[in-house]
Write the structure tokens for this entry.
Amino acid sequence: MDDLTRLTAADLAQKLSASEVSSEEATRAHLERIASVDPDVHAFLHVASERAIETAKAVDARRASGETLGPLAGVPVAIKDVLCTQDMPSTSGSKILEGWVPPYDATVVRKLREAELIPLGKTNMDEFAMGSSTEHSAFGPTHNPWDLERIPGGSGGGSAAAVAAFEAPLALGSDTGGSIRQPAAVTGSVGVKPTYGGVSRYGAIALASSLDQVGPVTRSVLDAGLLHDVIGGHDPRDSTSIDHEWPSMADAARAGLRDNALKGLRVGVVKEIAGDGEGFQAGVKQRFDETVRLLTAAGAEVVEVSAPSFEYAVAAYYLILPAEASSNLARFDSVRFGMRVNPVSGPVTSERVMAATRDAGFGAEVKRRIILGTYALSAGYYDAYYGSAQKVRTLIQRDFAAAFEQADVLISPAAPTTAFKIGEKVNDPLAMYLNDITTIPANLAGVPGLALPVGLAPEDGLPVGVQLMAPAHEDARLYTVGAALEQLLEAGWGHPLLQSAPSLAQSEMFASEEGAV
Amino acid sequence: MAKAELMDYERAIELFEPVLGFEVHVELNTKTKMFCGCANEFGSGANTNTCPTCLGLPGGLPQVNHQAVESSIRLGLALGCGIAESSRFARKNYFYPDTSKNFQTSQYDEPIAHDGEVTVELESGRRVTVLIERAHMEEDAGKLTHLGTTGRIQGAEYSLVDYNRGGVPLVEIVTRMIEGAEADAPEVGKAYVAHIRELVKALGVSNARMEEGNVRCDANVSLRPRGSNVLGTRTETKNVNSLRSVERAVRYEIQRQAAILDAGGTITQETRHWHEDTGTTSAGRPKSDADDYRYFPEPDLVPVAPSREWVEELRATLPEPPAERRARLREAWGFTALEFQDVANGDLLDAVEATVAEGASPAAARKWWTGEISRVANARGATAGELVSPKHVSELVALVENGDLTDRLARQVLEGVIDGEGSPSQVVEARGLKVVSDDGALIAAIDEALAAQPDVLQKIRDGKVQAAGAVIGAVMKAMRGQADAARVRELVLERAAQ
Ligand SMILES: [Zn+2]
């Protein structure tokens, strides 16, 4: 195939390494794809065309001079706007940070640069990662490449849409309660939330510190493993980062491609989130059940496990997250960076400027969660809310521990439904929060989760994803099982799922005819 | 602000029992800040010692300074505290522009050190034990400068903020309620803060300069009517930053609160500002126990869990407790209470101890350090210790005791040493200051002086020995001071008798 944007990162890297194509060519191809489809998809908030081409040329020059480069050198990558980049604005999807260019790179961004990947730009997200649809971005929603009238998931809808629309082979996301995995599920892409502490959070604009984790968003499990290997590892700047000898996730994914990789694997179906409950779409349940049968057929031993405390996960999450967020977001006060708004009338004191700025700079969902969190931490309420939520967290960790006695990996649908229509749930926060019912437990327990596509729901033809979960530190197991399952599924389809996605070519023509940007 | 009515101090103590409490903030002298790698130093340009973490930029994350933990553990041990097997940081949430993240990272319900005690000695010899509730680690705030007409936050046109101090490591030492201090309450406050200052200095964990804010004291004072067992409402006087001020502020609050209570008024629970110039306090922010900082465990940090082995290793590095050291030295040196006080108050214990170790007698070492060296230091605006080394002082003492120098000559030699002319012997050599010990030269001068004053000679011979002074003076003058006056006197009496 001539179109460089249709290649996986692994394949593109191989062509680059063999000098069959240059990084400049690959980068230009992706920039052109962005120019043609992003006016409709709106995956990007910022595209750094010139700098990307410059960086690509520099990598090509180094390769030409015979230097040994990293496995992903020269491969373009999109970066979620939650990550600080010293050469691009970093807004976290908020007006309060509009145009703010940080004086430093997040550790994961520094690692991308050191590994000589080519940053293409910054991707859209729900403001401060609060949302499951990317509709809460202060800069307008992102559209699902499978159906532009639908949401691409959230908060990392931009990163998921970018890879699903072939605007980038790789992207970084961040996952606090499902912000990598749920968008992956509804866009037919692959997303991994690593073990908490596996990837540095330094330079990731914090939503909820005890839950946030940066991870890869890609179109294949191997690609996710390759990107994970670049960004993972201990960072002394992040005290919660684990000092651990991590195996290569790419190697783990390759191990999954061997014959009988699934033989004897104990797969636990978590009863409480297996798709039977309220809110699960029939097509999601159907594809999930088929996937479980596929695993059984491949020699896996499927057991049902129970995690009774998962019932309280969403409630606990919506206390812990707003509590931490209310404190993390206190620094947006106009004193040192970002937007500054003076009060319309009355004295101009620092307190009143802070208040006016926060009122003008934060969107409704952000304010809602700051108020919730402030309340939950207040004297007299702390024990009942934040304290109880932390107890639930401990119970969930115990449920996981018990489940992993019986199973090597756990499996569930990655999201209860396929992509819903833009605007459908935006005024119903509770319905929106329930989108994360399957993904939240992993964040509360700090265990890794991987989402991958398992087909299209018969009723709407939209992608369905499943989620695999493993014990903390066992991310490699997810890559092995994920790659094995992906191989089985693609053998059945005859091609990767995303090849069935609309080409968006029509909108490409439409865009050029209309002279859109 | 009208000056408050004060009750006579003795009367106040008759009517009320003062109850005290102190929060002392000690700024640690670590190389870097509490949670980032920025330099912990002053005098740099505004906001130069900053980074994304201490500036509270989006994405910044804290890392605990190992050296600060070590200093805190040593300080905790020196306060007789237990060291927690696991302690945690929390976030104290409040909006203020000198706090870059709009929360202070501070230990809250899980401090690193807890339950200690220190005993302080008052000038009367009375010993008072102060119980320590806790010592916890936290970070300092930045520095606000209000610009405009008043220099205060009210009426300022704008304010500048410098985050160089933001994130500097502090240990806050909190006492339990101090009861029973009675009329000594102000002195107990002063002695307690002096004790902490001495302790952190001996430990080497802080520069301990109160005038630079290295040690800052908040004083809590309340009064309990005699015969009542109900505690009074307390006030917290902030930033009392000299030992003398601690004493004055406690005394002032006792007198002020007593006047209000006696007149049937009530004390407002509030923070108060201390005014060094007028020696008064004024109302600050009303404070209530309901102040809600929405504390919760800092999720960006893992608990600080020092191993027991490490704690014991650190315990072995503790210096001798200052009070024990003072008792030991006073005993060894045989000083009177007053003499010893002189040395201790002048911060000269180290200097005298080192000088004695070099061979000088304690009395001579004390005399030089508290006398001439301190005088020169005062005149030059320096500290005694940085002017001259104990070794040189000891050498000077030896020269005097051997009769090579008179006191007067020795003072000149000291001046030369201070001015960098070398060791005392080198200065004696270079300036030619040695005492004339050649009796022949002295006798010649004496005979000349006696001949010039025959009336004096006669008086001496008549037994009026004190008349010799005039002759001795003339001889010393002729010798340009380089003679031992005692020897001159002996020889004068000898020659007059012949
Ligand atoms: Zn710093």
